[in-house]
């Protein structure tokens, strides 16, 4: 035997936020939102526009709702079960005084959910709409969540039935369309293109030195094959930053675009000249804002004996494929980084790209 009870309640219709009220203020008090079971106006009418315009036809009644007479319902006394449907939750309160036959409050269930709280007068359920095994469906333009409040008594003892099962359907109705509007505007933007030359804020220098790392005077001559020492240096760096020489090439003129050139350092820090047989060109030491390296003195055929070295430098926080100081170890037959793992030099015989994250700044220096 089962007992089916129906819970009925009345949903009062009205404009959420209240009707328009005219006071001594010259401003209207408009409702901030409005629910509806079906579309009220075209969505495009609520898009902001760059200029003022009259209120489109059909929206006046929505923005300025007519005040409706307040409706009332004759009181029916305390209710055994009261339901409140929140934004994403459901609240159910059961008056234990009116359901005295169902004595054990912990045998009540809202779908699959147990009682949340119990006191001498009431028992409460407080759960999310998506919990408790409820069902949802679209009915008449509204989203309806359905649950069952039930009481399942223990099996009867003997031939007497003391309490019967209780089944009570509960529904939460939600309008599918929610209109939220405020006064707004769309700014008129004038697009401009700004071109700015970006230059490094760091200062870079390249100094020619002797074997004691002392600067040599201008016009110093070197014998063919003699080692020429260079000190690459930058201004004050941030903690963890280091200076790298990305490329260097020699020309017989000051023109960096000269077709007659010899590559010394290429591919973001690969000492290409160190791979030449009998070469003594190497990165020698590095750290922070200073990098030292040596290059074998050379000559161009049938041209001036004055050489110009053009170098590109960068600053980076980490050693990577594009921030490194690699020499070729002829005995081992491989490229090796001055301080880091040889793996960053693996691209020296191909093309090095930015394969690792790194922040760097660059500059070109000639000497």
Automatic annotation (TrEMBL):
Record localization: Cell membrane; Secreted, Extracellular space, Extracellular matrix
A Pfam family of this chain: Zona_pellucida
GO MF annotation: an example: acrosin binding
Gene3D superfamilies: Zona pellucida, ZP-C domain, Zona pellucida, ZP-N domain
Entry keyword annotation includes Plastid: no
InterPro entries referenced in this protein's UniProt entry, alphabetically: ZP-C, ZP-C_dom, ZP_dom
Residue intervals passing through the bilayer: none
GO biological process: binding of sperm to zona pellucida; egg coat formation; positive regulation of acrosome reaction
Family statement drawn from the similarity comment of this UniProt entry: Belongs to the ZP domain family. ZPC subfamily.
Name assigned to this protein: Zona pellucida sperm-binding protein 3
Upper classification of the organism: Eukaryota, Metazoa, Chordata, Craniata, Vertebrata
């Amino acid at each position: 035997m089962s007992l089916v009870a129906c819970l009925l309640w009345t949903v009062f219709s009205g404009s959420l936020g209240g009707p328009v009220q005219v006071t001594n203020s010259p401003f209207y008090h408009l409702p901030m939102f409005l629910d509806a079971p079906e579309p009220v106006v075209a969505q495009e009418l609520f898009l902001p526009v760059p200029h003022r315009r009259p209120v489109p036809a059909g929206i006046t009644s929505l923005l300025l709702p007519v005040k409706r007479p307040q409706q009332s319902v004759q009181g029916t006394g305390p209710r055994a079960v009261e339901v409140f449907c929140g934004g994403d939750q459901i609240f159910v309160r059961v008056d234990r005084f009116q359901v005295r036959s169902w004595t054990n409050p912990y045998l009540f269930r809202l779908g699959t959910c147990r009682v949340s709280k119990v006191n001498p007068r009431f028992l409460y359920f407080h759960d999310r709409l998506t919990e408790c095994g409820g069902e949802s469906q679209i009915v008449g333009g509204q989203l309806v969540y359905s649950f069952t409040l039930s009481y399942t008594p223990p099996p009867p003892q003997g031939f007497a039935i003391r309490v019967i099962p209780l089944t009570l359907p509960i529904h939460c109705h939600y309008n599918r369309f929610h209109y939220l509007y405020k006064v707004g505007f769309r700014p008129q933007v004038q697009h401009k293109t700004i071109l700015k030359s970006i230059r490094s804020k760091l200062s870079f220098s390249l100094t020619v030195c002797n074997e004691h790392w002392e600067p040599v005077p201008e016009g110093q001559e070197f014998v063919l094959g003699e080692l020429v020492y260079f000190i690459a240096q930058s201004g004050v760096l941030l903690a963890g930053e280091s200076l790298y020489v990305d490329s260097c090439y020699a020309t017989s003129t000051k023109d960096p675009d000269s077709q007659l050139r010899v590559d010394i350092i290429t591919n973001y820090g690969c000492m290409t000249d160190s791979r030449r047989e009998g070469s003594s060109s190497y990165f020698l030491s590095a750290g922070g804002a200073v990098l030292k390296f040596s290059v074998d003195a050379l000559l161009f055929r049938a041209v001036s004996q004055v050489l110009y070295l053009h170098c590109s430098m960068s600053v980076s926080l980490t050693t990577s494929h594009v921030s490194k100081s690699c020499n070729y170890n002829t005995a081992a037959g491989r490229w090796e980084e001055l301080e880091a793992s040889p793996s960053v030099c693996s691209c020296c015989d191909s093309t090095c790209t930015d394969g690792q994250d790194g922040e760097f700044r660059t500059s070109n220096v000639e000497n």
